[in-house]
Amino acid sequence: MASTITINPATGEKIAEYDRITINEAKEKIAQSKRSYDSWKQKTFEERAQLMFKLAEVLEANKEEYAQLATREMGKTIGQSRKEIEKCAFICRYYGDNTKDLLADESVKTEASKSYVTFQPIGVIFAIMPWNFPFFQVIRFAVPALMAGNTGVLKHASNVQGCAFALEDAFAKAGFPEGTFTNLNIESKRVKDIIEDKNIVAVTLTGSEPAGRSVASIAGQNLKKTVMELGGSDAYIILDDADLEQATDLAAFGRLQNNGQTCIAAKRFVVLDTIYDEFLTLFTKKMKAAKMGEPTDEDTYYGPMARIDLRNELHEQVLKTIAQGGKLVLGGEIPDSKGAYYPATILADLEPGMEGFDNELFGPVASVIRARDDAHAVELANNSIFGLGSGVFTGNSERGERLALRLEAGSSFVNKLVVSDPRLPFGGVKNSGYGRELAAYGIREFVNTKTIWIQ
Q1: CATH class entry, domain 234-414
Q2: Most buried by CB count within 10 Å: which residue of 227, 302, 363, 444?
Q3: Is 229 a residue of the active site?
Q4: What kind of architecture, by CATH, is found in domain 3-230+432-454?
């Protein structure tokens, strides 16, 4: 029988081995999820909410265990792993408290004696989730989907199967009925079979652009709705009135958070010419001072990348950018040590056409770009196939808002790093995907928006 082996990226050592399930076993689990849906959809919002509140308690009670597991499997620092679990509990409580209002019937005045819009669940949702936030990404999908009355099955990334099974167990401990949330430890080549299963009604994917294209194509052929949250190469504009101490603090944290492996991470820094050199000097100082080390050490700023192959691919992108004329300011060398480590790296003087400008660098590598003025900065920021997040650092919030409105992205933050907040919709444009997660917009992606007319 095929199996999944999880590897600690900090040491290269094997953590555990998990048996894959066959396609027939997967289909039986999906059938169980459909049977569960038939009864789950009948429960009231209040009944579902009570289980969500219990799930929040389970997550908090096991926070250290789950955090240590996430850190072992994908290498994020232990402090950030703990915060991830805390955020998961927050989402459970948010939707437990608010779903009844978010999905309340909406009365519409017409010539009918009564007409309104109601939001009804649609069935079993298939989620394909990545490794970089192994608990949060799944919870971000599952909680609103289940609160709406759907059930869910998960195909998680192979290198975080321990987290996947821990999540399935957490739902069970909270008292969710069997089949409400199910982990499918299947091979990637079986994804097509799952999407085509008659009991799957929709698919949500967070991952790479190629994966999104493949899944969307299969789902489209089967007329099944999809929501895609794909890659990003987020641009942050640094204006000449910005507080550079604050801006470089946020820039360093934004680029190194989660070991540089975040879709909405600050990746391209577009800096006005008059402050370019000063920004680069201060940014370099702070990136250099950030401690790379064992992710379980409390004082480590950033740890290893999730896998050796991903580290090596990133290094090739760095070398390609330098060969194209980019300036290596910091880092750029693979450490002579075990593990998937890559140092904080800065590539400067980048221009369109260079690898570090055009494509996503999914690791602790920052691209610094020079802009003549505000208009040129917006032009450079928007010169991307991606459009997930974006930001502006400025001492004038009105000026920042004007530029934020012109940025082609699903989110634009002024004087703050882009974050995923359950109270606000999250998603991208262009090659960063389509559809939204979170808030009222996200929870309504997987419902039947149904018109009722009574004459």
Answers
A1: alpha beta
A2: 302
A3: yes
A4: 3-Layer(aba) Sandwich (3.40)
